[in-house]
Amino acid sequence: MHKKLIILFFAFSLLVGACQATAEPPAPAPQGLTVIVHDSFSASEGVITAFETANNAKLTFIQAGDTGSALNRLILTSVGSQEPEADVFYGLDNTFLSRGLEQDLFEPYQPAALAAVPDKFKLDPTFKVIPVDYGDVCINYDKAWFAEKQLRLPASLQDLTKPEYQGLLVVQNPATSSPGLSFMLATIAEFGENAWLEWWQAMKSNQVTIVSDWETAYYSNFSGSSGQGPQPMVVSYASSPAAELIYAETELEESPTASLVAPGMCWRQVEFAGILKNTPNRALAKKFFDFLLSEEFQEDMPLQMFVFPVLPEAMLPEGFLRASQIPETVASLDPDLIAARRDGWVNDWTNLMLD
Amino acid sequence: MKRSRSLIWLLWLPPLAFLLFFFYQPLLVIFRQVFSERFNQGWQFFSWSQITRPLLFTLWQAFLSTLLTLLIGLPAAYLFARFDFPGRKGLRALSLLPFILPTVVVATAFNTLIGPRGWLNLILMHFFNLSNPPLNLLNSLAAILLAHVFYNTSIVIRLVSNSLTRLNPHYDEAARVLNATPWQAFREVSLPLLMPSILGASLLVFLFDFTSFGVVLMLGGPQFATLEVEIYTQALSRFNLPMAGLLSIVQLAFTLVITLLQNRVNNPRYGKAALSSERKTLLRPVSIRRKVFVILMSVLLVILFVSPIVSLVSRSLVTLEAARGERGEFQAGFTTRYYTELFKNRTDSIFYANPLAAMRNSLVYSVLTMVIATSLGLLTAYALSKSGRLTRWLEPLVMLPLGASAVILGLGFLITFNHPPWTSGSFPLLIPIAHSLIALPFVVRTILPAIQAIPNSLRESARVMGAKPWQVLLEIDLPILLRALIVSLAFAFTISLGEFGASSFLANAQTPTLPVTIFRYISQPGALNYGQALAMSTLLLLTSASGSLLIEKIRLPGEELF
Amino acid sequence: MLRVENIYKDYDGKPLLKGISFEVRQGELVCLLGSSGSGKSTMLRVIAGLEQPKSGQVFWNDENFTHQPAHERGFGLMFQDYALFPHRSVAENVAFGLRMAGRSKDEIEKLVRQALTSIRMQDFANRTVTELSGGEQQRVALARALAPEPRLLMLDEPLGALDHNLRTDLLTDLRRRLHASQKPVIYVTHDQEEAFALADRLLLLHDGHIVQQGPPEEVFRRPATAWVAAFLGLGNLIAGTITSPASAQTALGRFKLKSDPDRQVCSDCILLLRPEDGLMGEPAARQAQSLRGIVHDCVFQGKSFRVGVMLDQIHLQVQSPQAVAIGESITIAWPENTIQCLPASEIGLGHPGPR
């Protein structure tokens, strides 16, 4: 009796799969475009469909890990192959910009809309990759916690080494986490190559908590999230408070968290996209790039990816404006310097903090 | 016997071809890449400690985990093998469950149990009026060990209780009549005879702990880097590919050693004589001492297996949102919101996956895995059963995928199969193939003992009665193997359902599997996202649990395989 | 001397042994005889201390052993499946009991060598037991049981697993050794040929009771119940009712019996008609009560023929010096002093016993 049940069960699942698979109606063959994106990428169905219909295209997205991993995967898989795995890569950020460029993976292209983008974002003079969005990695804090303890917010990175902030901050391992890496770079920008490790030593004495990835930091350690962990400060994004507001379980007036945006405390991540060399769909790829810098896509990005558009005319959604803080100045380093020294810095950090 | 020799090679051909093409080839390809000129700037950071540190830690935590697992698993095996008590079947079914859950689900479940906002801390804070969570168990070695014990106790229970039930009780009795005290009888007779299965179980558990990734990453923290985690870091974040390759080779080498040891241990000198097919009756505990043992063990096992799962499921149905800042208080309210939210695409995202669609994807992959893994496993098992000593060495080759780094293999797949018709985006079979590589060892280990248990006399009498070889297979072998086959199918199914590592590498973003969608939800801030991750985890749990229960139902009591 | 008093034991919730009592004296070889599942092995296990009786006592030389653990009793037990330790060699198996008793290494070596020589297996000392043949295993098992010089030896169907020829050979061997050892021996079997060959005294176990005990000859000559007669295959058994102290009415007619004033009139009884006492042909016709039937079969038995005669649905067997043609009509009779009248018990009526 049970034998029959099992066979029935499996046959049923196969049937369900088959039905779904054959449910698509036949259509005139659209041109395909494959885009490699990182795991945080998202877009509205409406916006994408609009592009697809307008260009008779079918977009396929491949999610390839976080920014660093996606690039590394791309590099590895482009090895010696005539045809690349995909047509477009979206997910290169300024921390890894030089690595992406030196591997010579992209073809230059300047969409018309690029002219409107502020120069500070155009970090590649050859335009092999173009900026699409940016986000700021900042320390988020739990408003209610600070209010309850009546503690003053830290006004700078240096402040964090003070005894009243002992054990209150959780950061991510720069070797395994993109925001973690960005934060580390911010500290280097702030304190300089000779002194940044001293700051970290002071933080170590001040009991900074280190975890492997953003998920753990945010959901297990941060007190301001639904995980309600022990630390009221976490390295996250300037847009995370907006997410807390928009995705709250009950309607909130304001976000329960906010970002520390004092000078030097945030690191700007600019994200780039590039057309992969030897793509057979060059024309369509270029149209896609135009689309990336179009108002429709740029205005769709904030609620989907919780990043900011590079196009100045793009309007931000209301919840976003209310809850995100945009820092006036952000930390930054010369991309070539980053390229040359990054691995060494991570090494030094690991030796100091994880021993 | 030349004809049977060629038959053996014929049997080996498909599985070997499969392994060579889909496992060893990608491995070679990626190794060639990582050690090539192109990436050799990674060597500048080389130091031996970069290998020895993760290696030693990996060995250490695997050793500790195995020890703890044995500490709980051995008495538990004794409990299930000897005693009859209310709830025995249910508890047994439950004990298989952790094994097939993906690491994402387990990490989340432990978070809901022992995390700062987990049930344990909440209860303690409530009863003792604390404002801060007293238990700080996450991000520690303790959390890693706990999760490992949770995962692997079932292996010890299965393997050892199997041997225990089949061990002829007369050995122990003969020893006791020959002046041995019960303890001496155990030490001199029962223990040595049980040793192969205990060692076999320990080695398997050690192997799983040795290659553990998700648990170490999510529940441990950056201070705890095993080889697998280090490979991941070096390859994908540090982009130090030679180092990643080197570490991967070290890992494979150790895996090979362990599988060779397993091979040795599974075939004791004196054969399987100690195992009778006669089933010993289960006793109801009568004496006080026995009753206490049964009760204590049952409670311990329930706590171990049930609490993380119950904690996960309950947390997905409850909102604990009190006013932020009042951490000690909570207003627990029952809600199905997280589940209903799963079916809404709030942001109209193109990557939104309806949970049913995700389940469909997972199920389709699982069914394909079932077919591939079981058919190849059947051939392999037959080949092994007929093999002479030479082909015995091929068995570790089949088992090796268990210990290969998912990262290295995933990358290998991507490089090897990135041109048509193999491109991972459009070739849907790559995922079931990857799953089958992992499921294959399990299938072989399940079917092989069943084949070996078919008495030759049955086959011979059929042939004397005029049956041709294929008829013998159909009429004699198949009905007896049917149970083992069904168990294999179920294993392959559940392994595929819970697989995360390979799937995240190879999956098409728009047709994700259940584990991948769970990870997506938990990668975003927001209470609703967290809740949906919990709800989806519960759905995955339920689907896996049904598969697990089916395995239990169709087994003859006492006839545990694997 | 072993004394067992009023042993009660249940199996699977149902009573198995219902008050067993008997003794075994020094130098006596007692055979416990009964059908499969009658509880013979259980009785041995209770005596050995592997199981506890529900009630009743076990005494050795008047010392109450009932709750003594198995390893302190000093009894020997040989299992039906031999239970030789597969992970140990022949010599190690034989040495086991001595080793557990704490004898010195030299002593053990000497005794083991002696033991192996006595079973003519000195060359097998280092072989693994799994390589041995059935007969060899049996001898090793016996040597192992005897080596520690137990006070009492129990054997549970030791020849059961062997083929017929081997069995007869070993039977002679066994009898010699057991009698030579002078120990009290309890030998369990369901084969009465073995029992008759070995026993000083038979104990017949049926339905939880010892229904008869005594030397083989006596049991043979004067079975206590119909079950005993059936079990031992003593002859034809016919159901009947006692009509007078000297006669009984059966389906075959009235039989005259040797007068017994104790016989209860109107009670049921079973008549035992032994084939060897039966007369055929002329001498039969001269008897007071003779029966006429058709020869059904005629089987050569070596010294005589066993003739099966069919009378009205009832099949009787008679021993005959010569062959008789099948299908022939024949007269048979039993002299009244050879007919035994046994109390009825629950066996199949009218059928000759198992043989």
What's the overall geometry of chain A? Answer: globular
**How much strand content do the residues of chain A show?**
15-25%
The secondary structure category of chain A is alpha/beta
Measured as a percent range, the helix fraction of chain A is 40-55%
Record field, number of beta strands of chain C? 20
Low-confidence stretches of chain C: 347-355
Radius of gyration of chain C: 24 Å
Number of domains of chain A: 2
The biggest beta sheet of chain C, please?
6 strands, mixed
CATH homologous superfamily (4th level) name of the largest domain in chain A: Periplasmic binding protein-like II
> Which residues of chain A form runs of ≥5 with pLDDT under 50?
17-23
At CATH level 3, the topology of the largest domain in chain C is: Rossmann fold
| The CATH topology of the largest domain in chain A | D-Maltodextrin-Binding Protein, domain 2
- Looking at the overall shape, the CATH architecture of the largest domain in chain C is 3-Layer(aba) Sandwich
- CATH class of the largest domain in chain C reads Alpha Beta
Oligomer: heterotrimer
The total of beta strands of chain A comes to 11
N-to-C order of helices and strands of chain C = EEEHEEEHHHEHEHEEHHEEEEEHEEEEE
Question: Outline of this structure?
Answer:
Chain A has 355 residues and is α/β, with parallel strands linked by helices. Chain A has helices at residues 2-21, 45-55, 67-77, 97-102, 143-149, 178-205, 214-221, 240-246, 282-292, 295-305, 318-323, 335-353, and strands at 31-37, 57-63, 88-93, 106-107, 129-142, 169-172, 209-211, 233-237, 257-260, 267-276, 308-309.
Q: In words, what does this structure look like?
A:
- The complex is a heterotrimer of chains A (355), B (562) and C (355).
- Chain A contains twelve helices and eleven strands.
- With 355 residues, chain A is an alpha/beta fold.
- In chain A, helix 6 crosses helix 12 (335-353).
- The longest helix of chain A is centred in the middle third of the chain and has 28 residues, at 178-205.
- In chain B, 71% of the residues lie in helices and 1% in strands.
- Chain B has helices spanning 2-34, 49-82, 88-96, 103-114, 119-128, 141-166, 169-177, 182-210, 214-220, 227-237, 241-266, 288-315, 337-342, 355-385, 389-392, 394-399, 406-416, 430-453, 456-464, 469-498, 501-506, 514-522, 527-553; strands at 318-319, 333-334.
- In chain B, strands 1-2 form a two-stranded antiparallel sheet.
- In chain B, helix 4 (103-114) packs parallel to helix 9 (214-220).
- The relative contact order of chain B is 0.13.
- Chain C folds into two domains: 2-221, 3-Layer(aba) Sandwich (Rossmann fold), CATH 3.40.50; 226-343, Nucleic acid-binding proteins (OB fold (Dihydrolipoamide Acetyltransferase, E2P), Beta Barrel), CATH 2.40.50.
- Helix content of chain C is 25%, strand content 34%.
- Chain C has helices at residues 40-48, 90-100, 105-118, 134-146, 164-181, 192-198, 216-221, 226-231, 282-285, and strands at residues 2-11, 14-24, 29-33, 55-60, 63-64, 75-78, 152-156, 185-189, 201-206, 209-214, 236-244, 247-250, 253-256, 268-273, 279-280, 290-300, 305-311, 314-320, 329-333, 340-343.
- In chain C, the strands form four sheets. A six-stranded mixed beta sheet of chain C has the order 6-7-8-3-9-10, with helices on both faces.
- In chain C, strand 1 (2-11) and strand 2 form a beta hairpin.
- In chain C, helix 2 (90-100) packs across helix 3 and helix 2 (90-100) runs parallel beside helix 4 (134-146).
- Chain C is elongated.
